Amino acid sequence: MIWAFERISWMTPPPRTGDRHIPERDEAPLLAAAPVVGPATGPAVEPAGTGLDFPARSLVLVAGLPGAGKSTLLERLYGLRGDEQAPVPDGEVRVIDSRQARNWWARRLGPLPPRARIPFVYTTHVWRIARTLTAGHAVVAHTRGTWPHLLYGFAWLARRTGAGLHLVLIDVPPGTARAGQVARGRVLTTTTFARHCRRWDRLMAKARRGAVPPAATVTVLDRAAADRLTEIRFGRAR
Question: pTM to 2 decimals?
């Protein structure tokens, strides 16, 4: 299932709330199984295929719950191994996964616990995206869509560098994301994961209403649609 919304609007940062139990969302698709692409305020149309097209000089952010499969998608599309320490070139496109920054800092911050490394890792990750956009490259990057302030920051950055911001949201049930965390060997605490789930549900609710974050387009992929995706192309009209 693919949704694509073409609308620019602003997302109100979610309020802080207490932790609660994480309900399992239904595994069944929320819409018809056939992939659809269309503007938020118009009828859906069939997509051209299993690829996504974006204008040149775009910043494409692949977002989802921790463990949703963001890095897995980038590995499959761009041949990432998972041990890279710097952005990976693919023609004029640069692929930037937060694991690259995590790997770069691993030896330098060895004595620190993983949680204490997070500010270093994500500051480096965001700085690399900014530097690459400033250099004039299109960027496909991994991000947590559950951090609203990052989406605002990336939108500002895209405007400053003349790039368009496009979101690709991988929407999976919490149980699927939790299994992904176990498989990768980095499992969030129940409290932290619950917070991510609440924020993600609010983001998805806004996306389904067409009240999307500050982006030119938002594409929503369920697990099956993400698995069918074969390429992300740049230089074509969207």
Answer: 0.78
Closest CA to 15 of 187, 148, 113: 148
DSSP 37: B
Task: Give the pLDDT of residue 178.
Answer: 96
How long a stretch of residues is the chain?
Answer: 238
> d(Cα 156, Cα 181) in Å, to the nearest integer?
30
Using a 10 angstrom Cβ sphere, with 0-12 exposed, 13-18 middle and 19 or more buried, the burial of residue 98 is: buried
49-234 fold: Rossmann fold (3.40.50)
Give the pair of three-digit tokens for residue 128: 């690399």
Helices (H) and strands (E) in the chain, counts: 7, 9
| 157 closest CA partner among 63, 235, 57 | 57
- What are the mean pLDDT values of the chain's consecutive 10-residue runs (238 residues total)? 43 36 35 34 41 94 93 94 96 95 92 88 94 95 82 88 92 94 91 94 84 80 91 79
Could you tell me where the DSSP H helices lie in the chain? Answer: 70-78, 98-106, 114-134, 148-161, 174-184, 190-209, 223-228
